[in-house]
Amino acid sequence: MKILIATSVTPFVEGGATYIVDSLSQHLQARSHEVEVLRFPVSEKYPELLDQLLAFRLLDLTQHGDRLIAIRTPAHLLKHPHKVVWFIHHYRCAYDLWGTKYQGIPDTPEGVAYRDAIIAADNVGLREAAALFSNSTVVRDRLKKFNGLDAEVLYPPLSDPQRFHSEGTGDYLLYFARITHHKRQWLAVESLRYTDTPVRLVIAGCPDPGEEPYVDDLRRAIEKYGLSRRVTLISEWVHEAEKVDLFARCLGVLYFPFDEDSYGYASLEAHASRKPVLTTTDSGGTVELVVNGRNGFVTPADPELIGHAMDQLYQDQDLARRMGEAGAERVDEIGIHWDRVMARLLA
Amino acid sequence: MKIAVLNNCVPFLRGGAEHLADALAAKLAEYGHQPLLVRVPFRWEPPQKIIDHMLACRLLRLPNVDRAIALKFPAFYVPHPNKVFWLLHQFRQAYDLWGTRFQGLPDTADGRAIRDVIVQADNSYLPEARKIYTNSRVTSDRLKKFNGLDSEVLYPPLLSHSQYLCGEYGDYIFCPGRINATKRQRLLAESMQFCRTPVALLVAGKTETAGDAEAIQALAGRSGMEKRIRFIDRFIAESEKVEWFSQSLGCAYIPYDEDSYGYVTLESYLSRKPVITCTDSGGTDALVKDGVTGHRVAPEPRALAAAMDQLYADKQKARNMGEAGYALVQSLRINWDNVVEKLTR
Fold first, then answer.
1. In what order do the strands lie in the sheet with A231-234?
2. ipTM for this model
3. pLDDT in tens, B2-39
4. How far does the CA of residue B278 sit from the closest CA of chain A (Å)?
5. So what's the architecture of B172-331 in CATH?
6. What DSSP character marks residue A11?
7. Could you give phi then psi for residue B265, rounded to 5 degrees?
8. What is the pTM of this model?
9. Which of these, B130, B67, A68, A73, lies nearest to B38 by C-alpha position?
10. Which fold has domain B2-154?
11. Which chain B residue has the Cα nearest residue A51?
12. Which chain B residues have a beta carbon less than 8 Å from that of A34?
């Protein structure tokens, strides 16, 4: 089949969408489909979005490809006789973030009209789709609530899970993510203060642009609490081989983002490495994957409770190993694999 | 610098412009920049679609980008405060092809209106750029003639210049490239019967127009011509092409009215071989200086045969002309250092 994949990008910023598009393209090609990926730069700055939404309506791809798979908003506004949407998030300022401090659109009649126009456009573009999928139940629920649309959850798998492996249970917990405030690496540092065991912590990842002050705060906190010997902070791009190794030798993986839509690739990487995941009840999509006590722990975002869970893994390494194994089963059980993605997107 | 390269795109099709855009992005990265290839779909049938796509390009945005390098219509309309053009060509149906059989747009009130919108948009939006470079003198001349705009020619280099070799000055004239009517390989084959020396011709490339391939095949099959015309009708690998250039006496490249100097010409000079071209070949005259770096002759079999004979009869002169071609490429600064320096200036 000839397949068009269309997505929006913020130039020079890598994110989950980039990863889904690249891995989807690879897996389609591996199954002998001819793939053309179109990445459209989009500015989300108010009030620039409406012009760009119109541009997506005007660009004509209707003569090309047997199917169009639209990934990141507003790519679903492109017209195509066989359009499938794998929706990964709304332009959230106009939806769930409206009325919060992240709204980013002025609360004026113009701002309200702007928001309504975005929602109206989405309603048109999404309803044209032959099939609508979401990457998580959170996004599925928002599509229902705000757009009145039913979507099927289709979890995005890791591109290449086989490259991860386990080398036994180590003495450190790994927090591997972009270093940015809402990922709450600081909560991991705070929690370590409440541990009774000598369990260590490795925080690794690239700081987001402008997050240098946050990295400094983390460093200061580590020093202030006298945890310098127990915490390693790698605030830079980590090479793939090194990353795989960090996962392979850890005791378990921490992932405490605040209210994210999806389970996060770090959780999948943890389970591909046969490691349990520690997450919090307010992290959002992680709770779709992590069942408390089975493939990790889900605790309230409370340093004392998290510290206790950290100790439990350290003290009972057999438990840690069993939970890691259970993680691999859990990933399979909820259908996070490419065969399923292909079957659904190409149905 | 974070640099967006703006090109248009027809999904699942790739031609010269796509390869140039890829090469430019790769070279920008090599020189320490961050490139982003932005490929905007373009559809021109029915003609009203042209206007839709022009408008779409004006409505798109390029956030978080320090510099845009715009190559083709209509993607080059995407606004950016720090944009340079490296114009490969305008929408020629509205310009030099208007009034020819290649016009494409209907000669109706609607068709003329669409042409006028295109010309008007070029007049308005091309001057937004900090600087306009073009790929050839032909493109620059048209821009001056039709839009009154000044530009500077910046010749596109090949992806790799270091792979070309110069071996013996052999007995054959090499003619590589896709076989079609406008490249006129058939005319070269017809010329062979008028040669007075035993010079041979090697035509190599994938067939695009079957009629031409069959005609060349037939000419090669005539008695006495079996050893004089060799026709390799398939896609040619880079390594084969380098080798065939290396062992050739010279190269013949005689397209009809091409905009650019032609990569074949450049490849020949990088292999230090002279080039035969025609007086109606268009942009090749930027590189082929008659009697200095090769021969520019009338598009007639006898004239072409005489040019081939001359190369064969005086190989020392052929060598000198090939060397002069190589020196000309250097003096015109057809290389990526120059291109990247200018486009990021």
1. A231-234, A200-204, A172-176, A252-255, A277-280, A296-299
2. 0.90
3. 999 999 999 998 877 898 999 999 999 999 999 999 99
4. 39
5. 3-Layer(aba) Sandwich (3.40)
6. T
7. -60, -45
8. 0.88
9. B67
10. Rossmann fold (3.40.50)
11. B59
12. 12
